[in-house]
Structures are given as C-alpha cells and as structure tokens.
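Predict structure. Chain length: 67.
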Amino acid sequence: MSAVPSPSQKVADEVGKQLREHYDEVLREPLPEMMLALLDKLQMDKALHYESSDPSTPGLFSRRTMR
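Prediction complete.
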C-alpha cells in the first residue's frame, strides 16, 4: 500500500509541474535579435583570436591541455 502524499507535498508537486510547464514554454521561444547579434560577435571575435594567435603559446581559447 502506498503512502498518501501530504497536502504540502501535493502543493510542492503542483508548483513543480507548473514551473516545468513555464520553463518548457520559455525554452521554445526564439532568441531576441540582440542576443543573436551578440552571439555572432562573440563567434567572430573567437575566430579572429584563433587566426591571430601564435600556435606555440596557449591563449584564452586554446584547445591545448595544460600540464
């Protein structure tokens, strides 16, 4: 026989359900243009850093592992 959830557990479960529904909805929204522009700029800056950095010295975006 399973235990009956307490009223506070029922409230917590309902709040969790509503939060999941809300955040699922938010995740389906498109990114604002300003955010997309910022992400594009960061990608360009990162690409420029790779092109201009000396491959023998690790930089901020270096993929070399530190020992």
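Summary: The helical segments are 7-28, 33-52.
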